[in-house]
Design brief:
This protein is mainly α. The protein has one domain (11-65). It has 3 helices and no strands.
Length: 66
Protein backbone atom coordinates (compact mmCIF):
# COMPACT_ATOMS: atom_id res chain seq x y z
CA UNK A 1 0.00 0.00 0.00
CA UNK A 2 1.18 3.52 -0.68
CA UNK A 3 2.71 5.12 2.37
CA UNK A 4 3.45 1.87 4.16
CA UNK A 5 6.98 1.47 5.47
CA UNK A 6 7.40 -2.11 4.29
CA UNK A 7 10.96 -3.25 4.94
CA UNK A 8 10.72 -6.61 3.22
CA UNK A 9 10.82 -10.19 4.38
CA UNK A 10 13.69 -12.37 5.43
CA UNK A 11 14.37 -15.82 4.02
CA UNK A 12 12.34 -17.72 6.62
CA UNK A 13 9.30 -15.45 6.20
CA UNK A 14 9.37 -15.82 2.42
CA UNK A 15 9.70 -19.61 2.56
CA UNK A 16 6.87 -19.81 5.11
CA UNK A 17 4.58 -17.85 2.75
CA UNK A 18 5.59 -19.95 -0.24
CA UNK A 19 4.97 -23.24 1.58
CA UNK A 20 1.51 -21.93 2.50
CA UNK A 21 0.85 -21.39 -1.21
CA UNK A 22 0.97 -17.58 -1.04
CA UNK A 23 2.99 -16.37 -4.02
CA UNK A 24 3.53 -12.66 -4.62
CA UNK A 25 3.46 -11.29 -8.18
CA UNK A 26 7.08 -10.10 -8.00
CA UNK A 27 10.13 -10.89 -5.91
CA UNK A 28 13.17 -8.61 -5.77
CA UNK A 29 15.88 -10.70 -4.11
CA UNK A 30 19.16 -9.19 -3.05
CA UNK A 31 21.75 -9.48 -0.33
CA UNK A 32 25.24 -10.69 0.42
CA UNK A 33 24.31 -14.39 0.77
CA UNK A 34 23.65 -15.99 -2.63
CA UNK A 35 22.48 -19.23 -0.96
CA UNK A 36 19.23 -17.65 0.27
CA UNK A 37 18.54 -15.93 -3.05
CA UNK A 38 19.06 -19.22 -4.89
CA UNK A 39 16.91 -21.17 -2.41
CA UNK A 40 13.95 -18.79 -2.76
CA UNK A 41 14.21 -18.54 -6.55
CA UNK A 42 14.53 -22.33 -6.90
CA UNK A 43 11.45 -22.89 -4.72
CA UNK A 44 9.37 -20.40 -6.70
CA UNK A 45 10.56 -21.85 -10.00
CA UNK A 46 9.60 -25.39 -8.94
CA UNK A 47 6.25 -24.63 -7.28
CA UNK A 48 4.61 -21.46 -8.65
CA UNK A 49 3.49 -22.82 -12.01
CA UNK A 50 2.52 -26.14 -13.50
CA UNK A 51 5.02 -27.41 -16.06
CA UNK A 52 2.65 -26.68 -18.96
CA UNK A 53 2.25 -23.04 -17.83
CA UNK A 54 5.96 -22.22 -17.59
CA UNK A 55 6.67 -21.67 -21.30
CA UNK A 56 4.07 -18.92 -21.55
CA UNK A 57 3.88 -17.49 -18.03
CA UNK A 58 7.42 -17.58 -16.63
CA UNK A 59 10.15 -15.01 -17.15
CA UNK A 60 13.40 -15.14 -15.20
CA UNK A 61 15.75 -12.16 -15.29
CA UNK A 62 19.23 -12.05 -13.80
CA UNK A 63 20.57 -8.62 -12.83
CA UNK A 64 23.96 -9.13 -14.43
CA UNK A 65 22.31 -9.94 -17.76
CA UNK A 66 19.69 -7.18 -17.87
Amino acid sequence: MAGDNFTGLDYQEIIKELRAGRFRPLYFLHGPEAYFIDAVSDYVERHALEEAEKAFNQTILYGKEV
